Amino acid sequence: MVSSQINPLSKVTAGNGYAGMPRKGCWEHATAVLIILAACVLRMYCLPSQSVWSDEYVSVAYLDVATWSDFKASYRQHDPFMPPLYHVSLYWWARLVGTRAVALRCLSIGLGLASLCMMYILGRSLLGGKGALFALALFAFSPQQIYHAQGIRCYSFVVFFALVSAYAFWRMLHYGGMRWWIINAAAGMLLVWTHLGGVLLVAVWGVGALLWLRRQWSAIVLWGGFQALSMLPLAAQVLTTMHYQSRPDVGNTALSNPVMLLVGMIVPFFKDTSYVMNALPTAYLIDAGLISVRESMLARVLVVASLLLALFFLISLVSVLKQIVTERASWFLRTSEERKSIPGAALSEAEQQKGETSAMRFLLLWFLMPALMLYVPVVLVNSAALVPRYTIFASPSLHLLVAGSVIAIRKPKRMVAWGAGIIILMMIFGLSTTILPIRGNYLALGQLLETGYDGQSVAVLGDSPLLASQVAYNSTLPADRIVQVYSLKEISLWLDKELMNAESVWFVLEETEQLEDPIMLPPVEHLFMGKGVEYSRHFFYGPQLLLAYHIRR
After folding, report:
1. pTM above 0.90, yes or no
2. d(Cα 483, Cα 486) in Å, to the nearest integer?
3. Could you report the per-residue pLDDT of 507-522, keeping only the tens digit for each?
4. Are 400 and 123 in contact (CB under 8 A)?
5. 29-48 as b/e, with b when 16 or more CB fall inside 10 Å?
6. Taking the CB of the first residue and of the last residue of the chain, which one, N or C, has fewer CB atoms within 10 A?
7. In this structure, are residues 264 and 384 in contact, taking their beta carbons and an 8 Å threshold?
8. Pairing relation of β-strands 504-510 and 458-461?
9. Nearest-CA neighbor of 369 among 392, 394, 332, 347?
């Protein structure tokens, strides 16, 4: 294999991550440790305030069953398209630490901290010490990464396996050795068996191998064969997922507007700030004037800050693209003699054939190709819901790309100012996750319902068939006193029955497709007014909006 002595982009090259004096390396390692410790605090500080929301409760609800086969049969009723690796790990982790939410989240936090270490290792290999620290800081304060590192879901596993596979592929390119092919193949297999979206990242490495390692055809064939065989048992789940996501009742606008579809695929990579927005009022509530002025102002300030951060990221990506296009255009305009006479400025044809590539091209492939490949399944099943779920594994590439664009700025003052602006904005959102627990809504609801509880019934309305037991799990209320209803008629009958024996009752409305339509609120409240009852309304923001009505005779 080739060594990494050519510098195609002058400041970002393979293998330069460990260059420099030992003292400088120690300083960088110490800084990385401090960043990881800060990330650990952010992920642990608000952990007790994070409630178990709907998607998580699917995994939690059946953890107390006797055997793994019973657990598998139970959770697959609600989550039939999820591969088993995470649930296997969660089941045995619960046998070790118990089924309390905080203990269960520690499994994801452990993988999240391992991902931070992998991010630093990969960043040093790709960008050197400064770039690695910058990317690590973005990754550490990313609300998206904090959110998934705390979740009782598979996504912390997904991010970790994605980083391991990316590091192994980079080592395949520049240092060779069959062990890196094996590690990459194993990480890809574990990724796919954790989340079906991992197929896209495996495809990215396959394309990268064909582009840059095509002379090693025997290794590529063995690698591809192993990946295909490991994915074969999941083929039925792939078909299930496509059927589950399909929306035949919706017109296929993707074909008529492919440009907007492509934009919609790339936008989810900029979701670092949108997770904080889950803990804030929705645009509908703000526009309808249903919240306080303070909450409205906070939401608007963070929205503006999120747009500013996305703009920083976008400009950084454009600068990377400009740099690569300029370098390649300059290369093709030169004669072959001129190309060979400029070491370090561009790749020779021989080096291209051996598979040498730059860090930024590698990262762009990792960042952009999943979005391009998503075009086909989204058009086939006509559902954009695939996009945000299947791009989490590529989000670290955005942080690395932004870091690479910052350290490539030639003027030190401009580099520091640009980098500091991005880091400060990301820190604002990272710290916001400790002030506004993103999943705090169900716990806050439970605390409200517990206040003054004297045995009255509580009714809940939502899409999830597990909503009643989920509300009980996030509170100390007895599960048999929480009733799930499914229509306005059932709400009316329940109110007539309960208010005959109690002075007041609670009714909880979870965000549903109906609630997303502003006309849902008036029918519920008109029902209360029609019965001549008084009511007060409480909002709880999170992955799903909750409304709690205290209804009095």
Report:
1. no
2. 10
3. 998 876 544 444 456 6
4. yes
5. eebbeebbebbbebbbebee
6. C
7. yes
8. parallel
9. 394
